[in-house]
Amino acid sequence: MAYKTIDGITSSIIPFYLQDGTLFVLLGQRGQKSKAFANSWALVGGFLDPGTESLEQCAARELKEETGVEVSPMSMKLVTVQSSPNRDPRGQIVDTVWSTLLQSELPSAAADDLQAVAWYPLNEALNMDLAFDHQDSLRRFAAIEGF
Description:
20% of the residues lie in helices and 34% in strands. With 147 residues, the chain is an alpha+beta fold.
């Protein structure tokens, strides 16, 4: 019996910080030419470079490439794995979703595949229409963090 392999593995990251009892998360607006969910807001992330990095390293690399924010892969916690065959219009792509606590808001700027980045209060982000299944990932993150 031949086994099928999944061509796409991605890592997304939820950088967050607390300020005066409010939890803030960093989101990115996908580019106009994106092949999936163009112009939509989403978690920051991207495809794994197979054979060269771990899933945590992928999340850290994508965060730095797309926002300029640098974090250590060692600081991340796994939030969820999203694997629905229909979660991405480009095909079956498995997404590992990570979180990392920052001490405060870090300066960020859109780069690479993003046209904008912004820090949102979690309760506002939970009410946004996010790309892929990132709304569900944020809900899982909120439950884990007790919000």
